[in-house]
Amino acid sequence: MPEQLAHRDLRNRSAEILRDVQNGAAYEITNHGEVVAILSPAHERNRADLRIRKATRREKFTALDRVQRDVPVQQSLDELRAER
User: Fold this and answer.
1) How many domains is the chain built from?
2) In sequence order, which residues have a C-beta less than 8 Å from that of residue 5 and are 6 or more positions away?
3) CATH number of domain containing 64
4) What is the spatial distance between Cα 14 and Cα 81, in angstroms, rounded to a whole number?
5) Contact at 8 Å (CB) between 4 and 35?
6) Closest by alpha carbon to 10, among 22, 23, 28, 24?
7) Is residue 51 part of a domain?
8) DSSP label of 55
9) Which of 22, 40, 57, 59 could form a disulfide with 63 if both were Cys (CB 3.0 to 4.6 A apart)?
């Protein structure tokens, strides 16, 4: 069973943890005590099991239309955070 690791520990010790994963370790990453991700060596996973979405647009990012927002982005982010 993989060791559980809080997301803040992953952030603070990322180099050490990635070395461990490269050497075969696996971790369940938690956020507020809930498992949200599994970090395991890439060679152990069957690539066919990975969900990869194709790009929906083929143009370069510079070709995308600019969007003018009515409210500052920070205000939108604060509202989203308040919904949690």
Assistant:
1) 1
2) 17, 27, 28, 29, 30, 39
3) 3.40.1620
4) 25
5) yes
6) 28
7) no
8) P
9) 59
Query: What is the domain range of residue 62?
Result: 3-45+56-82
> Closest by alpha carbon to 39, among 52, 29, 50?
29
**Confidence check: pLDDT of 55 > 80:** no
- Interacting residues of 76 by C-beta distance below 8 A, sequence separation 6+: 69
For strands 27-31 and 3-6, give the pairing.
parallel
Cut 0.90: pTM above it? no
Task: Establish how many alpha carbons lie within 13 A of residue 29's alpha carbon, considering only the half-sphere containing its beta carbon.
Answer: 15
Does the pLDDT at position 25 exceed 70?
yes
55-83: b (≥16 Cβ within 10 Å) or e: eeeeeeeeeeeeeeeeeeeeeeeeeeeee
Residue 61, in any domain of the structure? yes
* Residue 76 covered by a domain: yes
